[in-house]
Design a protein that fits this description.
Blueprint: E1 2-6, E2 11-16, E3 21-22, E4 35-42, E5 49-55, E6 61-65
Parallel strand pairs: 1-6
Antiparallel strand pairs: 2-3, 2-4, 4-5
C-alpha cells in the first residue's frame, strides 16, 4: 500500500491493530498483511491527520493533504 502525502516530507506512522509500529519498505510504501491499521501523518507547522484503514486483497493508495496551521 502507498501513501501519497503532501507535503512530501511529512512523517508517516503506521500501526497495526495491536498498536505495533510498521516499518515502511521505502518512504510512504508499506507491505501489509490483511487487516485493520491506523496512520498518523504529521509535519511541524501543519495540522496532524490520523485515521484507520483496512487492507484487503486489492492494492490501495491513501492520499493525505496536510493543512498549514494558522
Amino acid at each position: 500500500m502507498v501513501f501519497d502525502v503532501i507535503p512530501e516530507d511529512a512523517d508517516i506512522v503506521v500501526k497495526d491493530v495491536n498498536d505495533n509500529l510498521v516499518q515502511p519498505e521505502e518512504q510512504g510504501v508499506y507491505v501489509l498483511n490483511s487487516g485493520l491499521y491506523t496512520y498518523v501523518v504529521s509535519k511541524e507547522g501543519f495540522i496532524t491527520k490520523e485515521d484507520t484503514f483496512i487492507v484487503g486483497e486489492e492494492p490501495i493508495t491513501i492520499t493525505v493533504v496536510l493543512e498549514e496551521e494558522i
